[in-house]
Amino acid sequence: MNVTRSRSRALRRSLIAGTSGLAIALSVGAVAASAQTAPQEPSTTVDEVVVTGFRASLNAALDIKRNETGFVDAIVAEDIADFPDLNLAEAIQRVPGVAIDRDAGEGRSITVRGLSSDFTRTRINGMEAQATTGATDSSGGANRGRGFDFNVFASELFNSIKVRKTAAAETEEGSLGATVDLQAARPFDYRGFAAAASIQGGYNDLSEQWNPRGAFLISNTFNDGMFGALMSIAYSERDLIEEGFSSVRWVNAMGTGGSGGFCSPLGVATQNPSNSSSTGSSAANCATGVARPANTAANVNAYNIANQANVYIPRLPRYGRLTHHQERTGVTGAFQFRPSDATTINLDVLYSKLNSTRQEDFLEALSFSRNAAAGGQTQIHVLDAAVDNNMLVYGLFNNVDVRSESRFDQLTTKFTQVSLSADHQFTDRLRGSFYAGQATSNYNNPIQTTVTLDRQNVQGYSFDFRGNGNTPVINYGFNVADPANWAWRDVSLGTGITAVPRSEIRIRPNGVDTKFTGLQGDLEFDLAEGWTLKGGINYKTYLSESYEFRRTDETVVPTLPGGVTVANISNLLSGFGSGLSYGGDTGWVRPDLGAIASLFNIYCNCNTGVAGGDFTLTSITNGNARGGNRTIEETDLAYYLQADFDLVLGGMPVRGNLGVRQVNTRLYAEGYSSTGGGTLVYGNNEYDDTLPSLNVAIEPIEDVIVRFGVAKVMARPQIGNTLAGTNYLVPTTSLSTTGPNFTASIGNVNLEPFRATTYDVGVEWYFGDGGLLSFAYFYKDIDTYIQIIRQDLEYQQLTALNPSAFAPAYCTGVCSSTTIFQLTSAVNTEGGPLKGFEISYQQPFTFLPGFLSNFGVQANYTKVESEIDYCNDALCATYVTNDLINLSPTSYNGTLYYETDRFSARVSAAFREEYLQNVPGRNNNLVEGKMDTMNIDASATFKLTDEVTLTFEGLNLTDEENHQWVGDDSRQSTSVYHHTGRQFYFGARYKF
């Protein structure tokens, strides 16, 4: 990526990296590793691994890695129900090549070797599954794609994680990045009775709130180990505040794709806006009732500085507070039956529920993102301006509309998985296994309500980014904490240009339901000494359904009843700005959602009979909600043949596998297009893939393993991308003609999957007691890629592109044939190469004298680069080469730890270099990206007795910011700059 990198905290990070050995924790634990292995992929088995403590858990994970044929990294819990990281994503980031994305201060999704969650499959107890939940808009919103949201689960529910980075014929297809195996505990993992409990109190230094977190596990075996039963439960709460600045991207001040430019002073040669009877613009007026600025030298100079096509302005400059509350409950049940030494039957049940609420309060300037019809940018007078690096970094303005916006979300995810597996030894040479299961994830956002208060045409509004490009000084031009200065702009104002902005009540319930059903059968036959033939068949179905409802017109609200004022429907947000380099308002008036809901009965799903009081919710017939209603059904049938070998050649142990997997994918997609008020559209696609693979592990000298892997792999197309506002697969068109943002999209059910040929080679040296030094090089030749094409077209050009979907009759009101729409679509492109390497180092310092022998380190470093050819226009006549989306060129993490029989402590660091989020970017930006992060965590335990251990965890100790930007190779304009504070946990564990 050629984008200039921000290194404002480089010195701090260098010092941290130096003192911690660039280190981060693999938090891990106690279990029988082989009992967790997915039935279709048995590896070297061990009857029982008793693991306690961090160092022992590292050794157990090292044994798993060493005994695998392919490239595998593992994490094992430190003890019974003791996965110390806050959630699973934050545990997996300790693995080489893995980086994570966060939402609300905790890990949500992962990227493996530069490939995002859409390219990574996740299996729970051996079965592919998907968990989806919601997030802030800047973090991707509701997951309507194929990615896995790890924050749905409590980490205490699992006792091992494997990240498989290379493919084998026996491994289910669908991943270009990795297959992640999450395994919950089973009763045969322990000898007889086992139980443990933990309780913690969590404190966040920004929200200043305390919350509980606890876990309990009990397990036992009966009838001489013939039958076993296990149950675990975990519960936690989180209350935190997220504060900072955001701009909802930047856009060019003038020209195509912008909002029409600023209002020119009287007599300026090229008048802007031009004369319009609908808005009232003329030689004397910017709009009805808004005179043009005087023709003074200062006004003309400021206008000429700001009103340029190559000058970018913040669309919605705003400060905001997001208040999060989460309750996470998880339960596992496992039952095992071993009627004979030849047969084992497993029944696994997993349930998780994530309840959360989020309130978002923003104080924002509307006008910079709104066009003339919406009373926006074309009414603004520029009184003073400064431009730096093509950004309007300072401006003093008149006629700016200011808004106080409050949004409240209630969100629930319920995940349930039931699976039955069995393995049986038919003869000394023939073995078989069977698997059947179903996993469902139900994400429901029943309340998503936004209400606004507004002030029209503020005089003396200013923003100033010159002192700090991330937290500008904003002067709103009035006392934002006084309710008398705000208005409830209701239906009585009419619909003319003088009525805007109108206050809004948006009600948008939505949800996503996904279901995986899987069946698998496998056979193994020992052909001869050192040779095993494997074969199997896998059948699975995938269903993803999403829905959304909205009001027909969200910008029409009822008049306040007599005697009711803004003071009665608002309250004061206070104490804003702690921990920010911020000198602005620490509080402002915000809408009281509860009072407004009660006053107008907004949740009745009815027409209340008063003007502006139609709160009926519609979906398919509602052009703004229609795109959220879609169904994807997939049926996958695969079979494979694989030969495993374990030989000695030339005095060297050589093991590996060679095989081929054949898979057929059938896809059905349906949704609703804009024609006819919601026309059902559907499509089918079918494709076949032949996926050969080879993995070899050679031990040329003792304790040194050389690995090699080559395979053809595929990943099925994404379903949608909320962050990019794009529908991939559903063959629908969407159209938004009401403004202020005019958008259109076209889906493509005929997309081919991502396809690539992968090559891996590595060397691993296992030394001493728990030491490892390894190097792995990987190369992925991505020859089929899917990208978003985004272009700005006049409506008449859309009509020419698709006359039925974009008929002239659908462009009414503020829409005209020359209105600029942003059209998005997805197409297959040629892709390009992705390559990189990983270096891992792990060693306990047992060779040092005295207390120094209790120290140890674990560290890894990953470097990745890609050259993806992106279409630069609708016909793909020209291309631009850039990094793969979500790929961080550099990432590293490490842990420095100290451990004795009674006391253990460690400090961990995880660095992820900045990366691209969208190519091309929205609003005429070349790209969108996210700045690099360095997260520092620490933990300690002290064993009071053999049963009782005191615990401490500190997370995000440097209060790292979520910093997103838009721009190009030389300009990085801040779009999000939020922080969530530091998190601390104090508690105790009891082991029975």
Topology, element by element:
Elements: H1 10-20, H2 54-67, E1 72-76, H3 88-92, E2 98-103, E3 106-112, E4 120-124, E5 127-128, E6 158-164, E7 178-184, E8 194-204, E9 209-222, E10 227-246, E11 250-252, E12 285-287, E13 290-291, H4 297-306, E14 312-314, E15 318-340, E16 343-365, E17 381-388, E18 391-425, E19 430-464, E20 473-475, E21 505-507, E22 510-528, E23 531-548, E24 550-551, E25 570-573, E26 588-591, H5 593-600, E27 617-618, E28 630-649, E29 652-673, E30 679-701, E31 704-715, E32 720-721, E33 726-727, E34 733-736, E35 743-746, E36 754-767, E37 771-794, H6 795-801, E38 820-829, E39 832-844, E40 855-866, E41 868-871, E42 879-882, E43 890-899, E44 903-912, E45 915-918, E46 927-930, E47 933-943, E48 948-955, E49 962-967, E50 972-979, E51 983-991
Parallel strand pairs: 4-7, 35-38
Antiparallel strand pairs: 1-6, 2-3, 4-5, 6-7, 8-9, 8-51, 9-10, 10-15, 10-50, 11-14, 12-13, 15-16, 16-18, 17-18, 18-19, 19-20, 19-21, 19-22, 22-23, 23-28, 24-27, 25-26, 28-29, 29-30, 30-31, 31-36, 32-33, 34-35, 36-37, 37-38, 37-39, 39-40, 40-43, 41-42, 43-44, 44-47, 45-46, 46-49, 47-48, 48-51, ...
